[in-house]
Amino acid sequence: MLFSIVVFLLLTGAFVYLRKIGARDKDLPPGPPTLPIIGNLHLLPKESSHFKFTEWARQYGGIYSLKVGPGTVIVVTDPTIVKELLEKRSATTSDRPAMYIVDQITGGFDIAFARYGDEWRTLRKTAHAILTPQAATRHLAIQRAEATQLLHDILTSPQDFYTHVRRYTISVIMSVLYGQRVPHYGTPETIAFFEMMHLWTEVLAPGAAPPLDLLPIFKLVPERWAKWRQTVRKIQGLMRPLFFGLLDAAEERIRSGVQNECYVEEILEKQADFGLDRKMIAYFAGTLIEGATETTASYLHSFILCMIAYPEAQRKAQEEIDRVVGQDRLPNLDDRLPYVQALILETHRFRPVSPMFVPHATTASERYNDYVIPSGSAIFANAWGMLHDPALFEDPEDFRPERYLLTENGTKPGVDASDMRGLFAFGVGRRSCPGIHLAQNSIHINVMNLIWAFDFKPVLDSHGNNIQPDTWAYSKGISFAPLPFDCLISPRTSHKARIIRQEFSESATIFERFEHAGRSTGVDGQ
User: C-alpha distances in angstroms, 215 versus 19, 41, 376, 477?
Assistant: First the structure.
């Protein structure tokens, strides 16, 4: 009898305990109804999570919570709350959630995903040595030269514009980091890199893999039943030889006395001062390539897509740039082009490359108004939801650069949007993108060049009618990039075409410093 009572009490206690797992505590922000044990796991989207997270924001408010097993996810879709939690309280909200997949691939040395602590501070300090505003100006020469090649490549084979843009973005950061440019898209290392990035962004998208860190039992699922394990193995097979091959080449140049003063050479010579070992250097530099390449390419592809879809915006930008710059030279960063600047900002708003950002995590409990955010909670800043909020932006699904001429932050007149300033293009708080200055220069240089040089038009059907581009045909991963699309690109005048050829020819002296015969990156075919 006593044994039966004990068993009954144990089972009752276990039942009560299990019912609490997945339940939303009364002090948490509101959110969708939960189920025992799994919480909201069954509701999480497997792709393009920003759409569902925005739908919930319209229902539950600017801050709401999701339960994933015993873990808590906070989603913020209000710029004032984002500023308060992720900037003003950044001392306790700058961690990253545990990411088993990332650790399996990079060993925790990816600066974007590294946990908040000494190793992250070391990586961040090292990044700032190259990515400060002052340091970024030293790289303008190669950025301009590579942008000139982009113009020349599009002039020569406009149908390949999509890969020309990718070549530009990877060549710039490879030149800056490794002193080794990429003159052609079809090199083995470039193909391997973009294949790796496709898999990388796909597996990291919220919902693409089980919540391995919140429900560790999923880590026990064999590979044949776990697609995420198969993807991780493919990424490892591409990433390691690429990253370490680039490092090998830099070390060989140092041994041979043919350095070209690139950043990784400086790190290798001062690695004791930086506090980095060889593995950290390889993954640190490699993940900088990832961030700089994918995001800038995604932005420029979105810009071209918008020029096709919104010809009136293209016409206004061309009129302004012709009036200010003229026909006889390429634009430069000193040119005052308010409409073009508004167009750049509207492209960031209309199709942000990181609609959800990488999540933050709390290292201590925080209270916001009547809500308690527990220590260890993941915090998602829903950039998409804020940038497409009809309470902030007039007709947010329309592409309207003029909104940024009407108000500083593009919001409706009379709306207090001071917390929107500079918030969403490059992250927020201590985890904002360290490469913001390099990226902004690339974006501005290329947007101005492309508007000055080319007309962008839709392709035609068999009857000669325009085929309107699909501005919703985007990738499903953690970054938001247009899927490959077709368009007609032609030089605006033959005179401008001659200037492009001349500028490209004159860039050869800049390229020489970043070209090395017989280099080896450890990728098959090299």
Answer: 15, 10, 14, 22
Nearest residue to 405 (alpha-carbon basis) of 486, 482, 490, 341: 341
Comparing CA positions, the residue from 95, 65, 71 lying closest to residue 363 is 95
- Contact (Cβ atoms closer than 8 angstroms) between residue 516 and residue 181: no
The distance in angstroms from the start CA to the end CA of the chain is: 76
CA 48 from centre of chain: 14
Mean pLDDT of the chain: 88
Q: Which residues pair with 380 in a beta bridge?
A: 75
Residue type, 149: Q
CA dihedral 34, 86, 427, 484 (to 10 degrees): 0
Q: Please give the Cα distance from 2 to 4 (Å, whole number).
A: 5
Closest by CA to 165, choosing from 304, 260, 351, 338, is: 304
Structure tokens at 444: 């501005």
Sign, CA torsion 360/365/368/372: positive
> Is 306 among the annotated ligand-binding positions?
no
Alpha helices in 388-467 (DSSP H): 403-406, 436-453
Count the neighbouring beta carbons within 10 Å of the beta carbon of residue 523.
18
Angle between helices 161-178 and 227-256 (to 10 degrees): 50
Q: Who contacts 63 (Cβ-Cβ below 8 Å, separation ≥6)?
A: 29, 74, 75, 76, 77, 78, 81, 368, 371
Indicate if the pLDDT at residue 31 is higher than 60: yes
Which tokens in the block code for residue 454?
Answer: 């080319």
Least confident of 47-51, 77-81, 211-215, 304-308: 211-215
- Homologous superfamily of the 28-514 domain (CATH): Cytochrome P450 (1.10.630.10)
Instruction: Give the separation between CA 73 and CA 495, rounded to whole angstroms.
Output: 56
Q: Are 378 and 359 in contact (CB under 8 A)?
A: yes
The model's pLDDT over 297-323, given as tens digits with 9 standing for 90+, comes to 999 999 999 999 999 999 999 999 999
Number of neighbouring beta carbons within 10 Å of residue 488: 15
Distance CA 196, CA 297 (A): 15
Report how far residue 488's alpha carbon sits from residue 474's, in angstroms, rounded to the nearest whole number: 20
Backbone angles phi, psi at 54, to 5 degrees: -70, -40
In terms of pTM, does the model score above 0.85?
A: yes
Which segment of 136-145, 244-253, 254-263 scores lowest on mean pLDDT?
A: 254-263
Taking alpha carbons only, the member of 253, 286, 245, 290 closest to residue 269 is 253
